[in-house]
Amino acid sequence: MSMSEPRSLSAPASDRPGQEGDPTKPLEPEQETIPGSSFVRSPAKTEDTCFPEEQKEEPEGETEEEYEADTQKLGETSAPETGPTCFKQGLAAAAMSDIGRARETNQDRVFSLLTTLPRDGVEMTAGLFLVADGMGGHESGDIASQLAVRAVVRHVLSHWLVPTLDDEMMDDAQSLMVSAVQEANRAIWEYGEHEHQDLGSTCTAVLLVGESIYIAHVGDTRVYLLEAGKLQAITADHSAVGRLIELGHLEPSASRDHPLRNQLYRAIGQQPQVEVDFIYQHLGESTHILLCSDGLWGLATEEEMAEVLLRSSCAQAACQELVALANMHGGTDNISAVVVTLPVEEGLFEVLR
Predict the structure, then answer these.
(1) Are 269 and 144 a contacting pair, CB within 8 Å?
(2) CA dihedral for 209, 212, 214, 219, sign (positive or negative)
(3) Residue 160: CA count within 13 A, CB half-sphere
(4) How far is CA 230 from the centre of its chain?
(5) Of 61, 88, 115, 263, which sees the most CB atoms within 10 A?
(6) Which helix (H) or strand (E) holds 320?
(7) For 167-323, where are the E strands, in sequence order?
């Protein structure tokens, strides 16, 4: 998150109609939200969790030749292979956070957990993925994002994963995810009050259960789904520019260079209570899930990110090349990405590529 352009924070947006979630089946469309949350309708999806070491900072800007060298160092090719590629993509996840080329510290934090759980005699796919982008000065942003990840992970694991192992499946995914982010908000707020510091963070958490995802979201970290070769954002930015887009006053393509692009009106840790967006999404024909901070989506286009996901050999390779892509565009902020590859039948990528 950029600290050179301070973000303004104001009261949260108006409430939206909500619904509660069942982590084992689609949610009913017209149920009430729990307090402190808003339901946002999304438009329209071998275990591997890695946290590579940060890249060394380089001078701002990069030539195409330097970019190719960077991606090759990361074990990647800088361009897709020629000719048809035919393989079956499996379920996998990876996470990566990089300091970028302009910041002195990395105030982003990521988390990725992918597993299977016993459920009615079969193995159920489950995962928890999180990106937090801290703010609040040289050290405070780092602390805020770390507190956010720690609080959300502890809450979800203790209230959902552990009970599930004892055959006590939690039925209310909305309550679980919203309360997890609200717990993160409380942790940051109390820390700031005790230490007399003004700090905050974005916080976007995704719970994967079977063929559905449940998202709790505050800030401008984004969740994308890749389907039919195209990326679609399913979260709304809690920023001045995001509000203009939501109201139809600004085209999404114009947001990248807008002077208000860094001004948030909602973040966690800024107030004792926070409104949390909750989104349910069936994965359908999606092939990838992407969570990323504005250090990635603010520099790379959706077309560029989609191309990386399609041509990368695995989730870890995709994370590495997405980071290299943002650094090629200047790396003006910390860069974080979590990539989840979803099962794809053999031969599909021949068509998509």
Answers:
(1) yes
(2) positive
(3) 27
(4) 17
(5) 263
(6) helix 315-328
(7) 200-201, 203-209, 212-218, 222-227, 230-233, 276-282, 288-292
- Biggest distance spanned by C-alpha atoms of the chain: 60
**What are 164-207's pLDDT values in tens digits?**
877 666 678 999 999 999 999 999 999 999 999 999 999 999 99
Q: How far apart are CA 331 and CA 318, in angstroms?
A: 17
Distance of CA 232 to the CA centre of its chain: 13
In the chain, the N- to C-terminal Cα span, in Å, equals 32
Asked whether the whole model's pTM tops 0.70, one would answer yes
Question: What is the structure's pLDDT at 117?
Answer: 85
- List the domain boundaries for the chain: 37-352
Summarised one tens digit per residue, pLDDT across range 227-278 is 999 999 999 999 999 888 888 888 877 777 788 877 999 999 999 999 999 9
Separation CA 249–CA 252 (nearest Å): 10
Angle at 196 between CA 263 and CA 3, to 5 degrees: 30
127, β-bridge pairs: 114, 208
The fold of 37-352 is Phosphatase 2c; domain 1 (3.60.40)
**Closest among 4, 330, 102, 311 to 321, alpha carbons compared:** 311
Contact 205, 274 (CB under 8 A): no
Please give the pLDDT value at position 164. Answer: 80
> Alpha-carbon distance 87 to 109, whole Å?
32
Cβ burial 239-269 (10 Å sphere, 16+ → b, else e): bbbbbbbeeeebeeeebeeeebbbbbbbbbb
What averages of pLDDT result for each successive group of 10 residues across the chain (353 residues)? 42 36 41 59 41 40 59 44 51 98 96 89 91 86 97 96 75 93 98 95 97 98 98 95 86 77 92 98 98 96 97 97 98 98 72 54
